[in-house]
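I'll show an entry:

:::
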Amino acid sequence: MYLSLQNIVSEFSQWVWGIPLLILLIGGGLFLFLYSGLVPFRYMKHAVNVLRGKYDKHDSPGDLSHYEALSSAIAATVGMGNISGVAIAIASGGPGAIFWMWVSAFVGMATKFFTCSLSVMYRGKDEDGNAKGGPMYVITEGLGEKWKPLAVFFAFAGLFGTLPAFQANQLTQTLVDVFQVKATNIDTVKFCLGVSIALITGMVIFGGIKRIGKVAGKLVPAMVVVYLITVLTILILKVEEIPSIFSLIFTDAFSGKAVVGGALGTLIITGVKRAAFSNEAGLGTAPMMHGTAKTDEPIREGLVAMLGPAIDTLLVCTLTALAILASGVWQNFNGNGISLTLVAFDSVLPSNIGSIIITVCVLIFAFSTLFTYSFYGYSCLSYLFGVKIGKYYNYIYIVTIIVASIIKLDFVINVIDSAYALMAIPTLLSTLILAPKVKRAAKDYFNRLKEGAFNH
């Protein structure tokens, strides 16, 4: 029964991630990239100033500051996708998959700008009067009630896409690998680890969105800095390899030689899938978090959100990929995911320092993601059945962590990939239809900025 379910999910994942979805994600993102006139990209400095709190007003609607909203959204994106997802991309698509992750990130920045601007522009409210954001509210508030089935479709897909299965699975695997657990019944060990992870997660997520924002705001910057220093150390030790690595990424991106069968289409899909897994641009999760930001300027939040894929994919994923490729172990490695990253780091750094640092980073990365994802699933369930029922999502979430700790990685990836694909369809369709509204608002905002309307 379990094997047949695995096969069904695997086949569905391959089918749904076909050319039509690729056209929607990359084509839609590319359209938004060009349609924006690259204006958002010219205001990166302003986006950083907004993030620093220069324009914060305490009486603005919403729950989180710009910084907390971005930290929470990045806590969800800078996570296992960056350490484990990059390794999966290299293992299944070869070095060329990294190039397609970069392409996805650039168009993803434009996608994030539009989707997160819309999430503030068309905020909804739950029964308790709290500001809520996300594609389901953008669709009903922006496109009207007749589009509600599309919003419901997104929320149902979101219930599965935001389950903590991947994080719990890879966090457990890391602890088993690092501590070299050789128990005869490895599943029992994984089960006990899963219960421990569930208990720690429960302590934070039952405190609500404000506690999640506060915790993420403190954890995210620290974990990114530690991880970057480690990777840069590896690159300094392997500095002579870097030119040939970049050359390999670019040549392999268009030849697909490293992929089984050498199919270029497979390679592109692998890169785009893993980029979507890493930075979530176009999937609709980040708008749920950014929609709760304390601001009455939608464009401002779109600019802050745009920094997400830059930090996440262009910076963190690239450094992980370079470290794995520089180590050389990827060529003859049979494992996948986090195991490949651990071996790569340990092969370059002395006396298991790599494993220790990766374990600490993985613990923080995975937990910060686990804290944030619970809010996404809660938002989807609350939209579908109301806040009273929504509150039960956290219990489902905790049980999923325990179950996911023991099941196979391939099955977990296929379930999440399938749900992500289904979430992307309503998110991008509504964004493309409402894009002119964002463009008009952006023109107005940047004109006011030039006139000094925000100087105070």
